[in-house]
Specification:
The structure holds two protein chains of two kinds. Chain A is of the alpha+beta class. In chain A, 65% of the residues lie in helices and 8% in strands. Chain A has three domains: 109 residues, no CATH class; 86 residues; 302 residues, ABC transporter involved in vitamin B12 uptake, BtuC, CATH 1.10.3470. The C terminus of chain B is likely disordered. The chains are: A alpha+beta, B mainly alpha.
Chain lengths: 590, 399
């Protein structure tokens, strides 16, 4: 089967996906322990109160700790917000003032040595105005030392992202004095992404370096690291390096190699975007491939089945939150009484991980609700129109209009807010190519449901019946297959797939009454291009159209032009292959 | 029976034509505004709009009802005609626009100071009319040639025409096309020297629309009664048989497609000066689908049906969007479902359906009022034997 070919790459892809998730989920830095914090606080007190010679050593020590507490106090110190309290017993206690002030403009003082509030002998909290206390001593030199300690602190922060950001910032500072700090950190650093950022920062700083040899080495380093961020610095260096042709050539070569790298990154980025857009299209079109492709029913309300799934996700989210309520008042009255009906569902008021898990419940429920809607649609209307495909188009368009209006009445004409669970937010980078979690998720999701559909159709008894009825409804009926029932289940399954698509689309786009309309033309085109009656064709055509769409958007520089070009391209493509990519071969006419 | 139907039809058409072309404008022009016979300018304008829609409906019917080609892109040709007229009307504004510049306002807004080349010839009414024929006709010829050559038909044809109008809609939304983008054209002042704000001009345009509709009706009536019309219907009922009898069906279909696009374009040309605006939403896919509803409601495969459907559904829409703005779409959707399921031959076929039902009931010897029909939910295939069957469904239907 064609599916074998298609899924050959699946295990490899899944492994990469899982590995990446695992890597990012592992705790990358231990939290600060209470005793460690205490030591640092003592050191800070010594540094504030102590003399000049001791300070540098203490600051270096503090800087290496990566402590968040220390960062806050050090920056307060440079801003003259660390105060000295002369205690009655003659000792001096350094404090910071709480930001919250009372009516008299005074606030409680926080002791630096233990983090508690400053109290007098009777245990009463003392309050001070800013002018009541003397600020701890600083001067320009000391502030510079503190600033350096702060930068180093950021380099050793617990969060790898923060460490990276700090390294990048130091790299752009154009102060070669940071090189030793960075090198010290590099020796301790474990995280490969941070390591790379530090390498880049050091090399970028060395570009302005003391000798041509150092500069040369730095340029080579940057070229080898393919650092996109240092492109500007390199370009500036190329413009200023006229007196050294060897260096200039080297810099130009480095710029070229980095630009080449950027082109590749863009290429892979576009490819990934294309595949993810194609996967969205695939998820949306797969249901249609069943109802339209296999059953021959033109369901213009397919888009509204997607919206049913999306709104189900919205309702489930609200049920996990504060509940869901709606009411409709009909614009006319019977017997002088206005007709109104509504629904008020209490919410679970969940929070934390339980609230975040709402999406896991929403996925199966959106499938079920859309499948139920599809079942009703099939029983009420479509079952009468199997032999009149053009008319099923018209009737289901009527359903689509009515459903859109019902969505408007129940959920309002505006888009509703569906918040993504935390675990779908964010992104990770693979060699500068940024991959969003929700896009990776949609690709995986598409693979899972294509696989599920394929198993259902080719490996289960129901699938056998479905294929028999689709190939020849009358003959299957003669063989004792209850075709009406099979049609009903098939249509419900196709609609349920649309509901799944809706659950997913709610995570990456807006959910509104006309959500389905956005996708309906595209998904029909996908099925037609793939070849009607062929699921594998739909898979290829969705991925192909998605990628082509993204590439054309890049080339033409505008999403709309890209879309127009791809629509025209599809029309022309059907000239060449009127039956789609994988046309069904048949001897029958008409 | 067939003969008497033709007679009835000609009487209805004659009466309708006299009413629409002579009586309504006279009532508008020569009666006092207080008189109960008076027809307001607003009504004349509204009817003018309906008649233009009726031309669009006939173009859909010529394809769908007579040739079995469901085109979901007829609103595109309608709008293209409208845009050509709109370009002429925009030029006729002259320097009277908001910016008091000799070029259309939106071009000033986009930073143009001279007229772009594509706009220059539209000072001439004749050129605009020529383009209103050439552009929709040319597009229909190219698209139809490509589609029919590769034997795209049925559902695929419907979906492709929908994609075509969707693509065009997206294209016209772009400002860089220099067609007014989102807002399209509006604020027209003059047409061939007459002031568009005068009720006499509007009345004249209305009469033009009514006459044009009559002309389109007669043309289609004549065409469908010739041998050509027979082949057309044969293609609808079984294209393969026609093909095997030695006819090049692609050429026939192409001709009908181009002709239908020109009829739609004519409707658009007359529509724009009466409505006073044309913008890309006019060619959105739903508009074409709506035109298909008019035909289905009126009765396809007839020429009176689409006209009746266009006027009735739009009249209903005008009323319902004012009275129940929230419910209108529900209503339209329900109407659509109902007509498709229970009235496959539309209003025109209703008497036939009622007769068939009566006969059926008499045969069973169980009397029941025929009004049951409207509420009859559990009829699985309520297509009476002698009503016009769905196209392409009954190959042995007598032509």
């Amino acid at each position: 089967m064609k599916f074998k070919l298609l899924f050959g790459a699946l295990p490899a892809f899944l492994t990469v996906f899982l590995a990446v998730r695992a890597a990012s989920a592992a705790p990358s830095a231990a939290g600060e322990s209470a005793s460690g914090t205490n030591v640092i606080r003592q050191e800070l007190v010594q540094a504030i109160l102590g003399g000049g010679g001791q300070r540098q050593a203490l600051l270096d020590k503090i800087a290496d700790s990566g402590s968040g507490v220390a960062a806050g106090i050090l920056s307060a110190w440079t801003m003259q917000e660390v105060y000295l309290y002369a205690a009655p017993d003659g000792s001096t206690i350094p404090v910071t003032l709480e930001s919250q002030q009372d009516a008299a403009g005074t606030s409680r003082a926080i002791r630096i040595d233990d983090g508690g509030f400053l109290k007098d002998a009777s245990g009463k909290e003392l309050r001070f105005g800013q002018s009541d206390l003397n600020a701890a001593y600083t001067n320009i030199r000391l502030r510079r030392q503190i600033q350096q300690a702060l930068d180093t602190l950021a380099l050793s922060a617990a969060d790898p992202q923060a460490r990276r950001a700090a390294a990048v910032k130091l790299g752009y500072s154009q102060k070669p004095g940071y090189v030793p700090i960075l090198e010290r950190r590099l020796a301790k650093e474990r995280d490969p992404a941070v390591k790379k950022a530090i390498h880049v920062a050091i090399a970028t700083l060395q570009l302005g370096g003391p000798s041509a040899a150092v500069q040369m080495a730095a340029v080579n380093e940057l070229a080898a690291l393919k650092s996109v961020g240092s492109l500007d610095t390199l370009t500036r260096l190329a413009a200023n390096a006229n007196n050294n042709p060897q260096l200039e050539n080297r810099v130009k070569a480095a710029i070229n190699s980095i630009q080449e790298h950027i082109r590749w990154v863009q290429f892979y980025g576009t490819l990934f975007h294309g595949i993810s857009v194609g996967s969205v299209l695939l998820v949306v079109a797969l249901g249609l491939a069943i109802t339209f492709g296999l059953m021959g029913v033109i369901n213009m309300a397919h888009g509204e089945m997607i919206a049913v799934g999306a709104y189900t996700t919205y309702v489930i989210q609200n049920l996990f939150g504060s509940g869901f309520a709606f009411s409709i008042t009909l614009p006319f009255s019977i017997g002088g009484k206005a007709i109104a009906f509504g629904l008020n569902l209490p919410g679970l008021n969940a929070s934390g991980w339980f609230y975040q898990s709402y999406f896991l419940f929403a996925i199966p429920l959106s499938f079920l609700s859309a499948a139920l809607a599809g079942l009703l649609l099939e029983r009420a209307i479509i079952q009468f129109l199997y032999r009149r495909p053009l008319e099923s188009l018209l009737a289901t368009w009527g359903v689509s209009l009515a459903l859109q209006q019902i969505f408007r009445m129940v959920f309002g004409a505006n888009n509703v807010q569906v918040s993504s669970p935390n675990w779908l937010l964010g992104h990770f980078s693979l060699d500068d190519v940024s991959l969003d979690y929700n896009r990776v998720f949609v690709v995986a999701f598409a693979i899972v449901i294509v696989l599920g559909t394929w198993i259902l159709l080719s490996k289960t008894p129901l699938g056998l019946l479905i294929r028999a009825v689709m190939q020849n409804r009358d003959m299957a009926g003669c063989m004792g297959v209850r075709t009406g029932r099979v049609n009903m289940l098939t249509f419900a399954f196709g609609s349920g797939l649309a509901g799944l698509a809706g659950a997913f689309l709610s995570q990456i786009g807006n959910v509104g009454p006309s959500l389905g309309q956005t996708y309906i033309v595209d998904s029909f085109m996908t099925v037609v291009v793939g070849g009607v009656g062929n699921i594998a064709g739909t898979v290829y055509s969705a991925l192909g159209i998605g990628t082509a769409d993204q590439v054309l958007q890049q080339l033409t520089g505008s999403p709309v032009t890209g879309k127009i070009v791809s629509l025209v391209a599809i029309i022309l493509f059907l000239q060449w292959k009127p039956g789609g990519l994988f046309a069904m071969r048949s001897r029958s006419l008409d | 029976m067939r003969r008497s139907f033709v007679n009835t039809e000609s009487i209805v058409v004659l009466a309708g034509a006299i009413f629409l072309i002579v009586v309504l404008p006279c009532l508008n022009a020569f009666t006092a505004p207080q008189s109960w016979l008076h027809v307001s300018d607003f009504t004349i304008n509204l009817y003018g709009k309906y008649l233009c829609y009726a031309m669009l409906a006939i173009s859909v019917d010529l394809l769908w009802g007579y040739t079995g080609l469901l085109s979901l892109g007829q609103a595109l040709f309608f709008s293209l005609g409208g845009y050509m007229m709109g370009m002429y009307l925009m030029r006729m504004i002259g320097s009277l626009g908001q910016y008091r510049e000799p070029i259309p306002d939106f071009l000033v807004f986009l930073g143009w100071s001279n007229l772009p080349a594509i706009w220059k010839p539209f000072n001439s009414f004749a050129f605009a009319m020529m383009m209103a024929v050439l552009l929709p006709g040319g597009l229909a010829a190219v698209f139809g040639f490509l589609a029919f050559r590769s034997r795209i038909r049925g559902v695929y044809f419907a979906i492709l025409t929908q994609a075509l109008t969707y693509a065009a809609c997206l294209l016209f939304f772009r400002n860089s096309l220099l067609m007014g983008g989102n807002n399209g054209f509006t604020d027209f002042k003059f047409i061939v020297g007459y002031n568009l704000n005068l009720s006499a001009t509007q009345r004249g345009l209305y009469i033009c629309s009514a006459v044009a509709l009559l002309f389109v009706y007669l043309l289609c009536k004549w065409m469908t009664s010739t041998k050509f019309g027979k082949i057309q219907r044969a293609i609808r009922d079984s294209e393969t048989r026609v093909l095997f009898s030695g006819y090049s069906t692609a050429h026939f279909k192409l001709f009908v497609f181009v002709l239908a696009s020109l009829i739609a374009s004519l409707g658009g040309v007359l529509y724009v000066p009466q409505v006073g605006i044309i913008n890309p939403s006019e060619m959105a896919p739903d508009h074409s689908l709506e035109a298909v509803v008019w035909v289905a409601v009126g009765g396809r495969g007839t020429l009176i049906g689409p006209i009746l459907g266009a006027i009735l559904v739009n009249g209903l829409k005008s009323w319902a969007t004012r009275a129940y703005p929230d419910m209108w779409l529900l209503f339209l959707g329900a109407l659509f479902i109902f007509v498709t399921l229970f009235m496959p031959s539309g209003i025109i076929g209703l008497p036939g359906q009622v007769r068939a039902l009566k006969k059926k009931i008499q045969d069973r010897g169980r009397p029941a009022p025929p009004s049951d029909l409207t509420g009859a939910a559990p009829l699985p295939q309520p297509v009476p034997a002698n009503s016009a069957a769905a196209p392409g469904r009954n190959a042995s239907k007598p032509g």
